[in-house]
């Protein structure tokens, strides 16, 4: 009977294990679903809409094949379409019936040429001229490489075959191209994983393994029982039992029949244990080969823990960049500016700097080319990026305020980055150092961004376009300024450093024999600089405001026989091109200053956050 139960266990175990394995193999079906994108007309760019990527649930895998380099990037659909607005491209969309369709999109004339500037005053521009201008501009745009654009959230570049794992929402699209000139790859597919869970495969395989082990055990018991009964016996005369000869006995006892019988019980039990081991090992392997989707999910789904969130105001537009995008942009800016600093190349610096930041670099390059030991500018900090406040704006220009730390020097920098249009790279327009004790106001999260504050906004303690002039007046007049009470004096290191520097230079001027107080005058002043202010809102309805201030120092002789000498001032002498003047010298320093400006109903004062100061120019009056 034991053999019968063992055979039944073997058969049932085989059926169960086979059914479990079949569920995971031949009965499981395909694990992915693929949609091929067919392109009929060759264009330099292929834009795949987010609806196409999200027609099936789950992550998306983009696969593009062509000879040579293949490029792919993704970003917000509106940004992608804006970047492609001046060129011809193929747009892949999802039709109302769920079919994937492609259409060639021609460039927008308004995006290529501005009629307000390109049309003649008499309005005599013809349609042919406009068409020619459109064709020329489209040709130039078609040769524009998409590689390295600051507009992309991320990009991929491979040769011959590109495979990009994606997980994009519907408001994002994917751009596929070669180099902007050659036709975009025509063999493009999008693949999604299918939900093919087999919840009973695991229990069947494990249960079958247990039954198989039980069958082996029953089979061993059956063999043991049969051996004990010694099988069937014939009826007849009893025969003497033949005893085995013990050949292991040495000496004189060799050949003597042993009176005791030795059984191979230990050997038999060892074989049985050896027979059970493969079954257990096979069951363990089958058990470990089953993934989570091969088991029934009996437990309740975990409930997410609610966290505090910040809700964007109604109608607020999308943030200019993500944090990862800002880190990549700032890293590129830092690398380019470092190369420009090393080569003293103003043209290279201009590709990533503008405004007051570029003007300070240009002056430094001029001084370093003439004075070999003149110090190099401080590098642009890029990592780690601690704070990012992007402007919430869908059009251009769009800007970002970023704060980066330098772990080695334990310093931080606050910067303003601006992108003038969809085809331009971000440029650094303001940069300043933060004090160690600086308290940054509460800012909106990077995924929400902040709206820009109008230059003449009346909702702040002081409109952004008046902050520079008011602070310059405080620098010049101190407590006599009408704006003195609007600015926080405690912790204002810029005012303290300006006052100390002016006193030092006044003492040096008065001690000079030929241009002292008896023969000349040294006057200090400050005015708003030429760089336009920039401001983004904070959570408390205040604003971070970046402004440019110029400090102007004027040295003049007081009589016709006196001259002003600057032979000991290498900087002024190099910039002015002379070491003395009968009319005097004017030296200009450029300050890039960041303030926190509270809202108009607050009792707080305008607080200095960070600044940088560099010599800008020197000339003979």
From TrEMBL:
Positions of transmembrane segments: 200-221, 273-295
Domain DUF8094 positions: 318-619
Keyword NADP assigned: no
Xref: InterPro entries: DUF8094
Keywords assigned: Membrane, Transferase, Transmembrane, Transmembrane helix
Residue spans of biased composition, Low complexity class: 114-143
Chain spans, region Disordered: 114-144
Range of residues in the leader sequence: none
Superkingdom of the organism of origin: Bacteria
One matching Pfam family: DUF8094
Keyword Protein biosynthesis: no
Entry's Gene Ontology molecular function annotations: transferase activity
Name by which UniProt lists this protein: Glycosyl transferase
